[in-house]
Amino acid sequence: QVQFVESGGGSVQPGGSLRLSCAASGISFSAYTMGWYRQAPGKQRELVALIIGGGGNRMYLPSVRGRFTISRDNAKNMVSLQMDNLKPEDTAVYYCNAAGGWVLGGTGPSVNWGQGTQVTVSS
Predict the structure, then answer these.
(1) What is the per-residue pLDDT across 69-121, written as a single tens digit (0 to 9) for each?
(2) CA separation, residue 81 to residues 14, 23, 42, 123 (Å)
(3) How remote is the C-alpha of 81 from its chain's centroid?
(4) Residues 8, 36: Cα–Cα separation, whole Å
(5) CB 83 within 8 Å of CB 6
(6) What is the pLDDT of residues 32-83, one digit of tens each?
(7) Of 7, 22, 85, 111, which shows the fewest CB atoms inside 10 Å?
(8) What is the DSSP string of 32-55?
(9) 25 with 3: CB under 8 angstroms?
(10) Do residues 68 and 85 touch, judged by C-beta distance below 8 A?
(11) Pairing state between β 58-60 and 34-39
């Protein structure tokens, strides 16, 4: 079975930082483009960052570009999201999943979603 387990969320003030982690199992991890998605209250889920299987290329939604950094460790089946200079509009539940379609802002796959990890940015 495919499983993604997210961790690292929390509550921070604007301008703060968090590092999210995702542990994957049940897939040939290095063969997949992976992404971080988020879903804010009342909004659709959106892909904010992706990284290709070998880790050599990354893409970001304009709203997070320059502030977020996605990375992966294929030996550990892990993908991470370093979030700096956080803003209140970053508040959402963050999820990881495959992102083979390379559609930034898209809702992503229909299956294999974990519980996500809550990120709250407020003063």
Answers:
(1) 999 999 999 999 999 999 999 999 999 999 999 999 999 999 999 999 999 99
(2) 17, 12, 23, 22
(3) 6
(4) 13
(5) no
(6) 999 999 999 999 999 999 999 999 999 999 999 999 999 999 999 999 999 9
(7) 111
(8) S-EEEEEE-TTS--EEEEEE-TTS
(9) yes
(10) no
(11) unpaired
The residue to which tokens 């796959």 are assigned = 109
Would you call 74 helix, strand, or coil by DSSP? helix
pLDDT of residue 22: 98
DSSP 89: G
Residue 28 tokens read as: 């040939």
From CA 52, how far away is CA 112, in angstroms rounded? 19
Task: Identify residue 24 by its one-letter amino acid code.
Answer: A
Residue pair 24/78 in contact by the 8 Å Cβ criterion: yes
Whole-angstrom distance, CA of residue 26 vs CA of residue 31 = 12
In the numeric block, the tokens 């703060």 are attached to: 16
3-state SS class at 60 = strand
Round to whole Å and give the CA distance between 7 and 24. 12
